[in-house]
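Re: the 203-residue chain
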Amino acid sequence: MTWEDLQEESTLDLIEYIRSIADPGYYELAQAAYIAFTFKFRKDVIDKCVVLSRKWNRSEDDAIELANRVFARFLKYPKFNLSKCSSGKIDECVRRYLYGIANKEIVTLLQAIYSPFDGAEVLVTSLINSQQTYEPEKLKKLQAYEAWLDELFSRLTPKHKIIFLTYKQYEIQNRTLPRHLLADMRNVLGLTQNTIRVYEGWA
């Protein structure tokens, strides 16, 4: 089965095939359907992405990247809801659905482009970095401040201190911490994101 064999299939059938991609018995069919679906809507989606990219002063290369993100997102979450297509014009409704994904994905794309984080962020457990050499006077000040923090957090838990130091190190106004760092925090501390936010507020 190739995508060319599915060119005459209806859009709804292609979507149904795509939704079966997790089933090993239908994987090849789903992949072929996804390619056929992409070819069917790619020009319209790229045109939309070019308009969005120009609006944000981005290049046509960014528009192509955005279009790729749109289809990748649809493959991962093929959640088009036919009941919301009031006009009955399926292809038109699917285009609008894909355009909606583009509007959301361009924000994610721009965040990645302009992110102040480089992926090297790690949890901060102490003011003193054991891999760094300090001038004696600075080290003395850091040790004194560390002792003060330990006294302050002695009424809470060690997790509060780690959360406090990590947020102080990396938090930037109107920016959340990078996802990998938040994931590390959840995994290492064994806390949910909501609990981390509460702990951060207490700290």
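The chain has a mean pLDDT of 84.
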